[in-house]
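User: Please predict the structure of the protein below. I'd like the answer in structure-token form so I can feed it into my own downstream comparison script.

Assistant: Understood. Taking the following sequence of 144 residues as input:
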Amino acid sequence: MDYTTLKAEVDKPEYNGKTPQEIANILNAETATKPDPGRKSLLSVIEKLDDAGTIIGKLDAAAVANPVLKEGMAALRSYQPDAGIDFTHTRTTSLLDSLVTAAVLTQSEADGLKSVGTVSCTLADSLGLPFVYPGHVQSAQAMP
């Protein structure tokens, strides 16, 4: 257990007045996300985003004049095992940000696409911590 990280978390004001069990329950609840590196296909986009059709249409239209986006869309549509797009990669996120600046996508749409590169997890997991027991919380709170 990384007690330094745990202490930094449990010392936050939102935990004031909560029991160690309540804090452990909050930390162990699946309320956060973490990066999920790896190539994702168009199906991943469709499964995760309610407005996938609108977003895909906008990307296809912009891809006509953007060779990088055109190749990205081709990779996204491929069903080969090593194809797809890594939505956690800095170049991918930068491209999505540039599409917002160019008014091709809204910020919400770009954020939605970036979320394809995340997976739900516990708050503890997002902090790099394993399952947290009340005793862990008590130990962290007792640290100077």
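That's the full token string. The chain has a mean pLDDT of 95.
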